[in-house]
Specification:
Catalytic activity: (sulfur carrier)-H + L-cysteine = (sulfur carrier)-SH + L-alanine
Family: Belongs to the class-V pyridoxal-phosphate-dependent aminotransferase family. NifS/IscS subfamily.
InterPro entries: Aminotrans_V_dom (IPR000192), Cysteine_dSase (IPR016454), PyrdxlP-dep_Trfase (IPR015424), PyrdxlP-dep_Trfase_major (IPR015421), PyrdxlP-dep_Trfase_small (IPR015422)
Distance between the termini: 18 Å
CATH class of the largest domain: Alpha Beta
Keywords: Aminotransferase, Iron, Iron-sulfur, Metal-binding, Pyridoxal phosphate, Transferase
Oligomer: single chain
Pfam families: Aminotran_5
CATH architecture of the largest domain: 3-Layer(aba) Sandwich
CATH superfamily of the largest domain: Type I PLP-dependent aspartate aminotransferase-like (Major domain)
Number of domains: 2
Helix content: 40-55%
Number of helices: 12
Strand content: 5-15%
CATH topology of the largest domain: Aspartate Aminotransferase, domain 2
Number of strands: 12
């Protein structure tokens, strides 16, 4: 099997697995316990928190510094950001008619949280994108300056699209939000571990990440929150993490998170070039083999590992199944929405034709992908495309 779905999740790196095994053996205590084993676990947990935060441009070492809250993953981190920052008065959990701005291309964990706030009374407005999947900054400025509504409270725009890989002008957006005194959150889940991501350099108020997107463990994520930003908790029942995200913290998962971050920092430059080279090789082979193929967001700033490509005349869901039968794992979009037959909201927001939307698949390479695998994967994908085009059933064709 050739794995080209690294945007959904990445295989855990051996170095990370070894670090987690050591942590499980060496730190068996509950970090909240007062005895020596608990204190040892706490020290290791805080070491992980500090190193991860530092790697992502945050400082959690001072008493009133930035915060890094461990969560169960990217979805919880995004929900904590939207619900925790979107509540107008954390003391009484009051929802006012304050505006909430999110982009049209957000992950389901942002969209659903935003819609939940809307049911509670928030004024939800959508930031449009252009045909390159980039937000329209001039429209953001107009929404922020609109005095016919109450002042916006929160803006949330993902750093990089999980479907097309398109990068957003986050630093420019942050400047605009600061100008109007509006909080800014970014879902950096797909970007972390592929490009450098920094809370400070981006100028955002909160940032979501998870290590299973860059060769770390599943089951853990983090929300970084800038110094001075107030956050309302969404879980209750413990004092851990200043009661903002209670629950027993896993030293083993935190150590895996830290090890994945350390591995990225060690490989960053080489990883970027490796991923970009393989992605470009795959795009060339597929476009050379199918003159009708259309690559989305080509020539625009994007993540190095992501290829969003349409094969007009071929149903995307049938293609995913057919390619899987040929031994290549790809997807038709976000893994969190893969069970849905609905067309991609991201591609629709870009204004693409129905034919392109319905024939688009997402391919994503990884650090262990080889040029030989890319060549073979392209051959198998093109074989499946050709068979579907001539109307054969995905379950009937066999390769000769």
């Amino acid at each position: 099997m050739i794995y080209l779905d690294h945007n959904a999740t990445t295989p855990i790196a051996p170095e990370v697995l070894e670090a987690m095994t050591r942590a499980a053996r060496d730190f068996p205590g509950n970090p909240a316990s007062q005895h020596q084993l608990g204190q040892r676990a706490r020290r290791q947990l805080e070491r992980c928190r500090e190193e991860i935060a530092e790697a992502f441009g945050a400082d959690v070492t001072s008493l009133r510094g930035d915060q890094l809250l461990f969560t169960s993953g990217g979805t919880e981190a995004n929900n904590l950001a939207l619900l925790g920052l979107g509540i107008a008065d954390p003391a009484i959990y009051k929802i006012t008619q304050d505006r909430l701005l999110v982009s049209a291309i957000e992950h389901p964990s942002i969209r659903a949280a935003a819609l939940h706030l809307k049911t509670l009374g928030a004024d939800l407005q959508i930031i449009p994108v252009d045909e390159t999947c980039k937000i329209k900054l001039e429209q953001v400025a107009s929404l922020l300056a609109d005095k016919s509504h109450l002042k916006p409270r929160l803006v949330s725009v993902m750093l990089a699209s999980n479907e097309t890989g398109a990068l957003q002008p986050m630093a420019d957006l942050a400047c605009k939000c600061r100008e109007f005194g509006v909080l800014l959150h970014t879902d950096a889940v797909q970007a972390a571990g592929k490009i450098d991501v920094s809370l400070k350099q981006l100028g955002v108020d909160a940032l979501s990440i998870t290590p299973h997107k860059f060769y770390g463990p599943l089951g853990i994520g983090a929300l970084l929150v800038r110094e001075g930003v107030k956050l309302a908790p969404q879980l209750f029942g413990g004092f851990q993490q200043t009661s903002l995200r209670p629950g027993t913290e896993s030293v083993m998962l935190a150590e895996g998170f830290r090890a994945a971050v350390a591995l990225y920092r060690q490989e960053a430059a080489d990883r970027l070039e490796h991923l970009r080279s393989l992605r470009d090789q795959l795009a060339r082979l597929l476009c050379d083999g199918d003159q009708a193929a259309v690559v989305h967001c080509a020539g625009t700033p994007q993540l190095p590992q992501t290829l969003s490509i349409a094969f007009p005349g071929v149903d995307r869901q049938k293609l995913v199944i057919a390619v899987d039968m040929q031994g290549v794992a790809i997807s038709s979009g976000s893994a969190c929405a893969s069970g849905s037959s609905e067309p991609s909201p991201t591609l629709l927001a870009m204004g693409l034709s129905q034919e392109l939307v319905e024939s688009t698949v997402r391919l994503s390479v990884g650090r262990s992908t080889t040029p030989a695998e890319i060549k073979e994967a392209a051959r198998r994908i093109l074989f499946s495309v050709n068979n579907l085009r001539v109307g054969r059933s995905a379950g009937q064709f066999s390769e000769k």
